[in-house]
Structures are given as structure tokens and as C-alpha cells.
Amino acid sequence: MEVTERKPIGTEQVRQWQREFERCRAGKRKLEQRIIDAEQAWKLRHWEQIRPRDGGAPEPASGWLVNVILSKHSDACDSYPRPVCLPREEGDGPEAEMLTDILPVILQQNRFDQVWSDVWWYKLKGGTGVYGVFWDPSRHDGLGDVAIRKIDLLNLFWEPGVADIQDSRWVFHAELADTGALERRWPHLAGRLPSGRGLLSRYRTEETSDAGDKTLVTDVYYKKRQDGRTVLHYAKYAGEELLFATENETEPVTAPFTDPATGTVGLREVRRPYAETGLYAHGRYPFVFDALFPEEGYPNCGFGYVDLCRDPQKYIDLMDSALLQNMLANVTPRWFVRSDGGLNEAEYADLTKPFVHLSGRLDNDSIRPIDTTGLSSVYVSLKQLKIEELKQVSGNRDVNNGGVGAGVTAASAIAALQEAGGGISRDMIAASYRAFRQVVELCIELIREFYDTPRQFRIRGAGAARFVTYDNAGLRPRSRGGLLGVDLGCRVPVFDIEVEVERDTPFATAVNNELAMQMFRLGAFRPENAAQTLLLLDMMDFRGKQQMREKLMGMAMEMNAENVRMNNG
Predict the structure, then answer these.
(1) DSSP state, 343?
(2) How many other C-beta atoms are found inside a 10 Å radius of the C-beta of residue 436?
(3) Domain extent listing, the chain
(4) Which one is predicted more confidently, 511 or 280?
(5) Where are the alpha helices (DSSP H) in 219-281?
(6) pLDDT of residue 488
(7) CA distances from 214 to 36, 114, 464 (A)
(8) For 65, 335, 337, 361, which has the most beta carbons within 10 A of its beta carbon?
């Protein structure tokens, strides 16, 4: 009798994961509803939450809250980051410089500027943005490369009550996939996949699809202790059908290989079995949370500007509605008409009719205008106070949007006012830089694990572009040598990540230009004043300072050499 090997992951384990998935889903239902409501407010559909539309009272939807989000998002895009790798040991300096050059190229290939923008939109509205950092083996014709994506919190689930996503026993990422496409890829699933209707929270849109032709496909990440270390394992399933599990992959991973000498095509081992190594060697969940205003009880989650400014925006629009109702009552003539007055009301209301017929005698009691009372100006002032409250609470003052007082025209003065008023934006951006460092660290770990084959990169610098070849040889463990005959083991090159701003704002550029003009007028660029200018530069901090220092020193050396030649001549 043929004996079938029992694999570690099967239907019973999938059923257990599905029970845990439902528990995790129930634990974040309120968070999902808050995110959906925030999206409605962003779309100016918040009257659906204030009261149902009845076609009666005016329902104005002013964009004060939207303007707050637009302003903060523009600040984030003006501060697009660039990673700089610093070595922790002197011998890793060349590798750190190479990573500093190629990481921006990898980010560019992932269109990270778009990912950065999308995550910031999500963060400002819902309170938390999430990055996913994965290895995509299908990229570059099967060579594989790092993939960075924005993750929707409605599709991500974790163990309720944990303070950090890395402490969760498992993390689920679920998405609806076309049932037909799944059956074509895995023919044995035909007729066995359940409908995904109602299994995920969805945004309220104009689309009418009910997901009846979709199937919920779930990725589950979990950690296990193996051989004294934490290993990250992964599985994919749809319904109760297991599609892939790293614990079941006990054979080494191979890839096609062509012998350059003989031209023979074969297979070569590219990594040990997934059952031993897990999904990624770094052993961390590939998700990075970036919270706006931190909130206890969720892993690195927070609340956003919609939650912060919802009430001021709500009452601004309610007051707008009341003011508009009063305005319409005052500008629309209304009349008291006696039922026995004999007035032809249709002719009276039609301004194109020159004659209005009536039966009987017309007197002052037959028809009389309805008197209305205008609102006091205090209500308009109260509305303005609510607008100012929203601006103050959100930190979206006029100066942040380019509005300054009369007489302020110098770029340096405008930049100084904006710098003083942009403390909240700087704090938010600093928090996003911390998340960006984690993204870059995960990228380096994936490069360390998977960049076995050399790759070509085009590096753009101050001069012409140069092409470099790079692999993970410099990131692999290195021997520490020995001491008194004792092997000190191996060490792995580790780097500290600093973040620079990729591009400056127009006002910051204007300030740098104005500073250069002032230094020129003071004679700081004259070679004979190089010594004093270098002392001045030591006390200053601005972009391009190091290049300016090098040019001044070169000019001073050339002048000294010229003086020596003239004296000797």
C-alpha cells in the first residue's frame, strides 16, 4: 500500500487559522468603521453621518477639513526622503556608500514617490499608513527584486490587544480575488471555492458589485522557534483550500542554470528549503506602520485629521445650513392669503402675467406678506470662530498656506514665518521618517538574502551617470578572526540609516539663493578671504555647505600657488 506523507500544514490548520482570522476581524471592526467614515468625510459625504438627506434643508459641505489634509500632504511631498547608510564599523564604509547609491534606485523602480504619497493620504485621513516590504520573485524576468506597496488597513488583521505588530502570533492579509482566475491557476479548486460576499469591510462607493464572483484569498504570516531562532513562516489559502505553505516546502529552491562552458541547461540550488529558513531570513513581519496621532490599544495605530477636526467641521456646516435657510427665507417672498379672498394664486405667483384675476373685493386682509427676521451678526461671528478653531486645532494656519501679513515680502521672512508655523508638520514628517528607516532596513535585509546574482544599476550624481554592478557579497557574514587560538565567530555588516530631504520647497530654495547673494556681497567668495569664510562656515548649516567649503579651499590653494610662482619669478 502506498503511504502518503503527512505534511505539517493541512486542512485542519487552515480551519484553525480561519477561526483566528474571524477573531482578529472582530477585534478591529470599530477601527474599520472609523476608517470608512473618514473616507466619507474626505469625499464631503459627511452629511450622511450627520443626518439623512431629505431634500429639504440645505446641506452645504465646506472644504475646511479637506484643505487641512491637502496642506499636510503637500508638506509631506515637499519632504520626500532619501536614505543615507552609515557604517557601524570602519571596514563597512565602502558597502555603506554603495547602498547609499543603489537604494534610491530601488525605491525609484518601485515608484516609491507614489507609494509615499498614497500612504500619506491614507495616514492623514484614517490615522495610520502601512507599508508592505516584500520580495517579488517575478520581477526582472524571474531574477526577483524588492517590492514596496501601500497596504489597506481594511485588509490587514492582527491579534487583538498587542502593542506592536511584531508581537502578534500571526498576521493576516486578505484580498478578494477573481474566482475564475483562481480556478484557472489551480484547476483542482474548480467548484470548491466559496463566495467572498460580506467577508471584508468595503468603502462606500458608487460601484454596485457585491463580490459574488470573488473569493477571499488570505495570506497568513506567523513566527515559530526553530533551532534556537525565530523563523517567519507563511501560508496562502482560499476557503479551506491550502495553496502554499513554507512549512510544507522541504525541498531546496532551485532555478534554471546554463553552463557557460558546455551550454547545458540544468537546475541549481539557490536557497535552502523554506521549511528550514522560513519566508524571509530577517524573521520580521513585512509590514511597517506609520501612525499620525498615536492611539493606545492598537499596534502602532493612530487617529487622523478627520477624527481630530470632525466636530468643528460638522458645526461649521450646520451653521452654514442654518444661515442659508435664513437667507432663503428672507429672499423668497411669501404671503398670507385668505381662503375666501378670491385671489388667483397661480397668476399672482407667475411674474410673466400682467393681469391677476380675483373674485370679490380686494382689501388689506386678502393678502399680506410674511415678515421674516434676519439673523444677528453674532451667528456669523460664531461661525468664523469655529473656522479659526479648526485652523488652530489642525495647525493649518494661514501662514502655512502662503498667507502672510501686510508688508512681509522677503523670501527669508516668509520662510521664517512658515518655519515657525510648521512645527506640527515637521513632527509628523519626523515620525514618517522613522517608519521610512524601518522600510529601508527591511530592503537591506532582503538585498542581503536574495541578491546572489550581480545586478546593474545606473547611479546619477553631480556629473555624468555611472553604471555599477552590485550583489550581496559585501553584506554576508564575515569572520571576526581569532584570538589566542579561539575563533571569534562571524559578524553581519549592520548600518545606521539617516534620512535626507530629496527636494527642497520653493521657499527653502529662495532662502538658499538669498543667503548666497548676501555672502557674495560681503566678499565671502574672494580667495583672499577664504580663511575668514571657512571660520564662518563652521558656524553655519545649510545645504551645499561642504561643496562650498571644498571650492573655497581649492581657490585658496590656487591663489597661494600663484603667489609662490610670482615670488620665485
Answers:
(1) B
(2) 24
(3) 30-138+288-356+373-482, 169-284
(4) 280
(5) 274-277
(6) 59
(7) 21, 28, 50
(8) 65
Q: Determine the residue type at 30.
A: K
pLDDT at 340: 66
Among 151-155, 361-365, 386-390, 434-438, the least confident range: 361-365
The whole-model pTM stands at 0.79
290 vs 81: CA distance, rounded Å: 14
The identity of residue 559, as a single letter, is: M
pLDDT for res 4: 45
* Single-letter amino acid, residue 44: L
Query: Which ranges of 43-177 would DSSP assign to H, the alpha helix?
Result: 47-50, 64-78, 93-109, 112-126, 139-142
- The residue length of the chain stands at 569
Q: What span, in angstroms and rounded, lies between the C-alpha atoms of 530 and 382?
A: 60
Of residues 564, 555, 429, the one with CA closest to residue 502:
429
Q: What is the pLDDT of residue 525?
A: 79
Q: Is the pLDDT of residue 406 over 70?
A: no
Grid cell digits, residue 65 = 477639513
Instruction: Supply 263's cell numbers.
Output: 551550454
Q: Which residues pair with 369 in a beta bridge?
A: 335
User: 389: Cβ–Cβ under 8 A, 6 or more apart, which residues?
Assistant: 312
- For residue 548, which of 522, 566, 521, 530 has the smallest C-alpha distance? 530
- pLDDT for 135: 94
d(CA 258, CA 36): 52
What is the radius of gyration, based on Cα positions, of the chain?
Answer: 34
Q: What is the largest CA-CA distance in the chain?
A: 126
Q: What would the grid cell of residue 351 be?
A: 411674474
